[in-house]
Design brief:
This is Cytochrome P450. By secondary structure, the protein is of the alpha+beta class. The chain has helices at residues 14-20, 24-32, 52-58, 72-79, 89-102, 105-126, 134-150, 159-171, 178-202, 213-219, 230-260, 263-269, 273-286, 318-321, 366-383, and strands spanning 36-41, 44-50, 64-65, 132-133, 292-297, 301-303, 306-308, 313-317, 384-387, 409-415. It has a single domain (14-415), classed as Cytochrome p450, CATH 1.10.630.10. The chain binds protoporphyrin IX containing FE. Protoporphyrin IX containing FE binds next to helix 5, helix 11 and helix 15.
Length: 416
């Protein structure tokens, strides 16, 4: 069985996964010169695969399902239990359309405008010579704009705590021990908050615009015409808010990219919209965020001389596909210009998943992510000047999720 498929060395590879982090799959497919290999993770047999062809197979709903793929520990921190990420078939598509309906280009633009307004409003607090940590500021700004846009009341005195909770859920996904438990507590707190808000909307106590995310989640009906129960509506509302706050990670990496490639600043300064977008795409490709995805084999099939048996867990390498030298020339160079002539196949550039978002599990929030990143870069380059004091900007590929260690400290901030 699977005699031609390379097997990762050792009885169990969980420790190597913790040590190699984002590079766990890439290191091995490079070593074996093969798109896939078998490993054992936490006692179960797993097929790990990487690259564009692997992504096409992974996103075939006839071959894979998401139900049963996500460990409970990830559901109890990052995504919420039984949420959209675990659904399949018609029920998934129905739920997905709800998310897609909220992430329209006008809404992407509105969020980007809110972001610019919030960044501008932060300047007076920063002027006067003190230091700020960009990652922390970004968490607060994004939490304010996410709640404002979604129609959720949020007092200024609550912002830090709520932003911290959303951020803790994300930080927990690859963690064990205290970071994991912090994420669980943060989720329990945020779900309680969201259940209360949804109940207030349903009872008419809280009036909210009909085109808001809060209204949409509170009154969404499933395929059988039943309203989501309060807990499910709360979980899915968090699935809109938390990832907006998570854009703080890409914002922090954007600042690092600007710092490491000052020549890019001039081009952003010239107001070239296309260049700004290319820069953002290269940040999403180059820097690590989502490491890999999991799905279970729906029915037996053979691909690449490998027998995929019903129920097997399969991991698709996101980080490695975005650094695959068959797709990307010199993948370990940061070069926004590579996106100039870029024509995506939907399975080659997958920082937020692959395929068509309306038909599969690909992230519905890419437009929002790109527009908020563009507004923030415009702000950092064109609206303020600042210094970058000595600090530890290194980031570890073993830690998932990772971030520059200092969070990107800025000082001597002044309006331009
Ligand atoms: C799904 C990454 C931002 C909402 C996903 C997936 C990834 C991802 C890797 C899984 C794709 C799959 O399972 O095939 C990211 C990253 C983001 C981001 C790195 C940047 C911070 C957003 C934003 C939103 C969002 C801004 C909404 C406002 C979702 C939802 C799903 C999802 C609801 C589940 C889709 C489904 O299962 O059908 N995202 N995302 N994400 N994302 Fe994002």
């Amino acid at each position: 069985m699977n005699g031609q498929v390379p097997h990762a060395k050792g009885l169990d590879n969980s420790l190597e996964l913790m040590q190699d982090g984002y590079l766990f799959i890439k290191k091995r497919v490079d070593q074996y010169q093969c798109d896939l290999f078998e490993a054992r993770l936490l006692g179960q047999k797993v097929i790990c695969m990487s690259g564009e062809e692997a992504a096409k197979v992974f996103y075939d709903p006839e071959r894979f399902q998401r139900n049963g793929a996500l460990p409970k520990r990830v559901q109890k921190t990052l995504f919420g239990v039984n949420a959209i990420q675990t659904m399949d078939g018609e029920a998934h598509i129905h739920r997905k359309l709800l998310f897609m309906s909220l992430m329209t280009p006008p809404n992407q633009k509105r969020l980007a405008e809110f972001a610019m307004e919030q960044w501008q409003a932060s300047i007076p607090k920063w002027e006067g010579g003190g230091k700020i940590v960009l990652f922390e500021e970004a968490n607060d700004v994004l939490c304010r704009i996410a709640c404002h846009w979604a129609g959720i009341p949020l007092k200024e005195s609550e912002v830090k705590e709520r932003a911290g909770d959303f951020s803790a859920m994300v930080d927990a996904f690859g963690a064990i021990g205290p970071r994991h438990w912090k994420g669980r507590r943060a989720r329990a707190k945020a779900e309680k908050w969201m259940r209360e808000v949804i109940e207030e909307v349903r009872s008419g106590k809280l009036k909210v615009k009909e085109d808001s995310a809060l209204h949409a989640m509170a009154f969404h009906s499933d395929l059988n015409g039943n309203q989501l129960d309060t807990q499910m509506a709360a979980v899915e509302l968090i699935n809109v808010l938390r990832p907006i706050v998570a854009i703080a990670t890409f914002i922090t990496f954007s600042a690092l990219a600007l710092h490491e490639h000052p020549e890019c600043k001039e081009k952003i300064r010239s107001g070239d919209e296309n260049y700004l977008e290319m820069f953002v795409e290269e940040v999403r490709r180059y820097y690590p965020f989502a490491p890999f995805l999991g799905a279970r084999v729906r029915k037996d099939f053979i691909w690449n001389h490998c027998e995929f048996k019903t129920g097997m867990l399969v991991l698709l390498d996101i980080y490695g596909t975005n650094h695959d030298s068959r797709i990307w020339e010199n993948p370990n160079e940061f070069r926004p210009e590579r996106f100039k002539e870029w024509k995506s196949s939907l399975f080659d550039f997958i920082p937020q998943g692959g395929g068509d978002p309306a038909e599969g599990h690909r992230c519905p929030g890419e437009g929002i992510t790109v527009e908020i990143m563009k507004a923030t870069l415009d702000f950092l380059v064109n609206k303020i000047q600042f210094q970058v004091p000595a600090q530890d900007l290194s980031y570890s590929l073993a830690k998932m999720p990772t971030l520059p260690k200092s969070g990107f400290i800025m000082s001597h901030i002044m309006r331009k």
